[in-house]
Amino acid sequence: MAAPKKGRNASAQSKPGRSLALILIAIVALTGGMYASGHTTPRLGIDLAGGTSITLRAVPEAGQENAINKTNMDTAVSIMERRVNGLGVSEAEVQTQGDRNIIVNIPKGTNSKQARDQVGTTAKLYFRPVVATEISGGAAPASPSPSPSTGATGKDGDEKATSSPSAGSSATPSASATTQGRPASDALKASPTPSASASGNASPSATPSADSGAPAGDAKLQEQYAALDCTKPAVRAKAGDGAKPEDSTVACGRNSQGQWQKYILGPAEVDGTDVDEAQAVFNTQTGAGWTVTMDFTDKGSKKFASITGKLAKNQSPQNQFAIVLDGEVVSDPYVSQALTGGNAEISGNFDQESAQNLANMLSYGALPLTFREDSVTTVTAALGGEQLEAGLIAGAIGLALVVIYLLVYYRGLSFIAIASLLVSAALTYVIMSLLGPAIGFALNLPAVCGAIVAIGITADSFIVYFERVRDEIREGRTLRPAVERAWPRARRTILVSDFVSFLAAAVLFIVTVGKVQGFAFTLGLTTVLDVVVVFLFTKPLLTLMARRDFFASGHKWSGLDPKSLGAKPPLRRTRRPVHAAAGPVDPKEA
């Protein structure tokens, strides 16, 4: 049985080149993939590249304390990601922290401000009929006056709603409903079924009609409306708090003169979920500038046609409906006809950014929870560069100390250790560069710290193996048998040590959030690479070097000199000495 075992060992020792070739091919393939992907450097996190980090805290609404749960938090993260990506902001990160916080990291870029404005906006959209409205703060509202055309002039002297044939067609008229000229949106247009328009001289605080959907005799609501002062931010923030979509409520909004108006609004007839798609469009045909076009779902189209048909029968202001976004009225167009085309256009004093913001929020839906901004941290690119430079300097110092120790203590063996460190560093760099576009991995400052710690873990594996080889030499064995006999013992120790390190990194990654996960991920990745490098590079390379005279002869600079290691002399059998007094032995007697 001894002979076959010896043959197998000899075979294993004679083919270390296969392992070295395998790891070389892997490095070349990964490097080629890195250049082919166009990402030749690791993606940097906010703290190194610069950008904005926002912490949002979920706040329960009245009667909905149980709404803050994992499902709603995950939904909010998904919607925020779609909103940010919809603006073209690349490499943004949105993730939960704990059970009610969301961290949004927005890289420095042209659209990062837009993204910050959108991530925490709940974007709950409702179309509510207007019951009453007036300038807030005590100013008397202007009464609408009749117009000789088919529409009615608005309370601030704005243009009336009109019905006129579409350009290039005499069949289908186009109804347009204009509002008070709000900065966010002034008018809503659609392709309706022809119907008669209505106008009148009703006071803005007219009694609600049966079709408005609002209870005319709700004294509590009337009291809230009378006491509502929209010029006060604290009052505006609480206006309509706790109102359900099916309830009438009060709300605030600005007009084109920058004045705050207050409203009594009826129950929501259409909500944001009924909007199928919204787009920001620059309208050159009508000269309206930037507008937001909306396409309704089939269900939403029916609802929208129904409410506009009812409102068209009323007098001003009850022939208006308010577009309410997160409790604030952003538009309140007049309606003169039932709008049945299944689409609408909000136009007004938009610029490109505000139009894109509104369209983006309408397209991707409302957040299931209300969020408040807890903290906003902005890191400049210059500060990020300084932190990256400091991290690289710390890593270089750590690596230099390890190399100096290896040179002084292991001498010639340090060549194998340094070569292994370089291979490990190359693999780490290439894989980090590939993981950026693949899974969104970003190298932040804690991740750099994890890579620095990994230098010590990798060096420790070499030291374990080298010391096992030295122990075998101290026992009197030559280098080549010592390399092979030391490997099983060293391998076991290295695997146990790396398993403990990887387990610690995995637990840290699972139980933590944010930047600490970067440290855990990098530590786990480099620990796995340590096993790969030791098995496929360090061990085969030492096997090859053991065949060289410089190492095999135990040169004093090889780090394997038996004399300096205190090696024992080889054990040899000795014959018992012949007693001298017995005299010579007669050959014949023998």
Cα distance spanning the termini: 39 Å
* Percent in helix: 40-55%
Could you tell me the number of beta strands?
16
What is the 3D form? elongated
Number of alpha- plus pi-helical segments: 16
Q: Spans of 5+ residues with little confidence (pLDDT < 50)?
A: 1-13, 139-214
Assembly classification = single chain
Radius of gyration: 39 Å
If you average the pLDDT, what whole number results? 75
Could you describe the 3D structure shown?
With 590 residues, the chain is an alpha+beta fold. Helices cover 45% and strands 18% of the residues. It has 16 helices and 16 strands. Strands 4, 8, 9, 10, 13 and 14 form a six-stranded antiparallel beta sheet that branches. Strand 8 (249-254) and strand 9 form a beta hairpin. Helix 12 (445-474) runs antiparallel to helix 13. The longest helix has 33 residues, at 479-511. The chain is elongated, with a radius of gyration of 39 Å. Residues 1-13 and 139-214 have low confidence and may be disordered.
List the helices and strands and how they pair.
Blueprint: H1 2-14, H2 16-37, H3 46-49, E1 51-59, H4 70-86, E2 93-97, E3 101-107, H5 112-119, E4 125-135, E5 162-165, E6 173-178, E7 187-190, H6 219-227, H7 233-238, E8 249-254, E9 260-265, E10 270-271, E11 275-283, E12 289-296, H8 298-311, E13 321-325, E14 328-331, E15 343-350, H9 352-364, E16 370-379, H10 381-410, H11 413-439, H12 445-474, H13 479-511, H14 515-545, H15 549-552, H16 562-565
Antiparallel strand pairs: 1-3, 1-16, 2-3, 4-9, 4-10, 4-13, 5-6, 6-7, 7-15, 8-9, 11-12, 12-15, 13-14
Helix pairs in contact: 2-11, 2-14, 4-5, 10-11, 10-12, 11-12, 11-14, 12-13, 12-14, 13-14
